[in-house]
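Structure, all two chains, one model.
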Amino acid sequence: MITILQWTTLAICGLVALARIPSAVRGENRSLFYIFALMTLAILLSIEAPYVAIDHALGGVNLTNLLLRFVIFGAIYFVGVRITKGFGAANAYRLITGRTGMLALAALSALVVVVYLLMDTAGSSAGLVTVSGKDPRNGLLVEYYGAAGRAYPAFVSLVLFPAMVRAARSRLPLLVRIAAGLLAVGGLSIALTLFFPAVPPELGSLEFMVNYTAVLCFVIGLALIWAARIRQDKRAGSGTSFTEK
Amino acid sequence: MTLPAKAFQRWLHGIAPDASTADVCRVSGIKRTTLAQQLVRGKVSVSTVVSISRAYNINPVAALAGFDSYRILAGPPQPPTRCELVSQISTADLLRAALARPAMDPVGRRGAAPPALSPVPHASSVKNWVDAIDDGEVRHRVSAATGIAPQNYSAQLTANRLSPELAVATSVAAGVGPAGGLVATGLVTEEEAGWAPGARQEALDSMSDGDLTALVGDRMQALGKVLRRQEQDQAQTEKIWENLG
């Protein structure tokens, strides 16, 4: 079940990224292509088999996991910037790109690196399962590492949330409103990841569901906005009257 | 509100005893699947009855009066008030009429005689109609009588819509002819509701220069608000396309 979810998410993300290449070549909103590409990479790195393969190539010390954290940070930063700009959420934009946001990004990045260096990271394993099983000290460090890695995405998505709810209830085109709703759900899911330490181990699959729901909501939401634009352009091309809203 | 399928079947049998459902759909231009679905659900829409009545040369208002929930429509048609008639003239027609009045141009240059009035309903016909018959309490009485929440009622008016049931309820609450709302929503024509031909033009001609000019001012102000809102929505949508499309 989880494997299916992982690979379908990867497939959807990869397809959207591929579909975005022509417009990226034309120079239309290239950052959107980077967002999809980064998300695809992030999902690829979170699946066991590709993770282990890549990590072996990188020396087998779970450096890939650190890389994954920064891929996620990068993707969520660009998502935050594009969405707040697009939806005209000036306050949210300032929070993400201003001093608060940069400070949060720098501090959490440093924390992730420091905790990574403190861990005994030998032995490739997605989600650092074997590392955390080595001894209580490493187990605790993995918890901190995970928490620091989840904190920045949660910060950005919480900043986005009010603007998305507002957009979903506005008079914007229906597809855009649905997209905003999806982005709101995705943001909420990411925020929920903050509570992962409180989830009992038996419900581990719940964590996967929340993670992939979040990614899917973001990817499909962003793709829908793109689709809405294509639809609008087509309509405008076929010459509708100006009275149509 | 929809009409019960049983009552509809009985009525249909009364006007076209030998016609099959397929025949009825063909002459009235209703899609077969639409009617079949309405019959299966037991709820036939009012516009179905209107279309069929027209196809069989029956006055749709009289036809509706045969159903329990629209009994109030029975009897000789009540003539519309002057306010109602004027409310069913489009803003552009009112403006043209005002410009053609000598009082508008003290120099004595008369505008060209305005063309014939455009047909009912116009772009804000429902809202203008309710405003025209509202003594300040009509909305309260409608919501008390039908149980609709005031904000839902307002939302329908803003969208220039009103369900037939609410249209009749509004007429009753305002003490005007019961079919007026059906004209304003475009469900039936002026003629079908028993409005004399040329009644709107006569009502317009009987307005004093001052009243007409003041009314045009109000309408223009409302139109300006609507247009500005559309422009804002459009600008916001453009911004989303620009950043996320």
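Residues 239-245 of chain A have pLDDT under 50 and may be disordered.
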